[in-house]
Specification:
Length: about 190
Amino acid sequence: MKQRHLAPTKGRILISEPFLNDSFFKRSAILLAENTEKGAMGFILNKPVGYSIHELINDFPEFDAQVYFGGPVESNSLFFIHTAPDLLGFSFEIEDGIYYGGNYDKVKDYASLGLLKPDQIRFFAGYSGWDTGQLDFEMEEDSWLIFERPQKLMEMKPESLWRELLKKSHSELAIWANYPDDPSLN
């Protein structure tokens, strides 16, 4: 449920307001991986780029895991979140069983051996980042709604994530969850 009093802290989900008309963040759901006095970073969870990881990375074994556009910062770099810290080594816990980073070579090795499953990891091209005070300013401008992270986040369908969270907000904005992305195509 959306609560305006929630702070945009690590592990929470930001969803863009229905009328945010930004080419990168329109109808985005972002997992905040960090938010400190130096700035914030997160990953857009619901913008697949249309390729599996092995289709984009030449030496990656065949592995049926989609790559997502994580945000406009360092969009030529690969990032990942996962639920397998024991397999992937040095990782940072975002919150309650969701981790960021790890040993990339172990990711490839365990993926090829079938020990790492596609539903345990999500890959991102780039990330979303905010400088000091920038996210706070955007919150004041009502660009984002804040949600607690759903327990089964990694199991939720990315293509419906923004809509599902907005519907659960029980706010005056929930009605816009069913509004078409481009109403002129109706």
